[in-house]
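PROTEIN DESIGN WORKSHEET
SECTION A - STRUCTURE
LENGTH: 86
TOKENS:
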């Protein structure tokens, strides 16, 4: 695996985790309305906060699992590189 690509993926997943945590926290503590928008922003759907929080928590778990696998791959690559160097 390309090391630069691996490090980029780790960074992207860490950003995704931060966003999921932020959304989950806001949804749990929110009293206003929550909406889901389509890509164009022309349509939206009102959604209960608990649903938003649940989705964010699920995404957080998935991202954390992927991050753990990527970190394990990084550590393996580091061990291989160390083994190649005198």
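SECTION B - SEQUENCE
RESIDUE ASSIGNMENT:
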């Amino acid at each position: 695996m390309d090391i630069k690509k691996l490090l980029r993926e780790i960074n992207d997943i860490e950003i995704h985790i931060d966003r999921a945590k932020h959304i989950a926290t806001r949804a749990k503590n929110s009293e206003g309305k929550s909406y889901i928008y389509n890509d164009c922003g022309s349509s939206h759907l009102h959604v209960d906060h608990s649903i938003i929080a649940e989705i964010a928590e699920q995404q957080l778990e998935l991202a954390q699992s992927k991050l753990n696998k990527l970190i394990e791959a990084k550590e393996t690559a580091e061990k291989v590189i160390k083994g190649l160097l005198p």
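SECTION C - NOTES
The beta strands are 34-37, 44-47.
The domain at 3-78 is CATH 1.10.287.370 (Helix Hairpins).
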